[in-house]
Write a structure and sequence with these properties.
The chain is α+β, with helices and mostly antiparallel strands and about 210 residues long. The chain is built from 6 helices and 8 strands. This is LON peptidase substrate-binding domain-containing protein.
Length: about 210
Amino acid sequence: MRQLALFPLNLVVFPGEKLNLHIFEPRYRQLVRDCISEGITFGIPPFLNESVSMLGTEMQLLDVEKNYASGEMDIRTRAIGLFRVTEFYRQAPGKLYAGGLVEDILDDVRPDAVLQSRIASHLQHLYDVLGLRKLMQELPPDYRIYDVAHHLGLSTEQEYQLLEAGTEVERQEIVLEHLDHILPVLMETERLKERVRLNGHFKNLTPPNF
């Protein structure tokens, strides 16, 4: 167990993700200064349902992209791991920003090859329908669920469910269930759009023989 500075936000950050933030509140400007001067990291626990979640992502400051005369900053960060909050403080000792006692979460990153193949097929289908083929082309062959999670139409609550999953296989099962649900809906929407487009056009139809 260790102490970690906390920066609750209304979003889910996945391990390996890079996140750019505009910092304007005094408490988080202090946090960035501490990251620079002390080399500390900080955690982003999602703020869901009017409360701070007990699961979060640890972030490393990569760079301060811009300093404003007002004291605001643009920063670049990278997610380096997961943690669980065991004790939350609205203010870390002697600081303006929040903090807490946390324990690190070890992740089983091994995928199931069969599930991976099914998900890849579904993703190809999804991105074809949405006109987002480039997303599929940019994916590495050994991609993890975290690499595609923000491009699946998941709600913030569903994304948090992926964080809660302790293994890659669990995440694969969650995503596959989601894709199995939304793809038929998308296909029906596409068929409806096509029927609307054809309405009013001259139709070359073969009359039935009777």
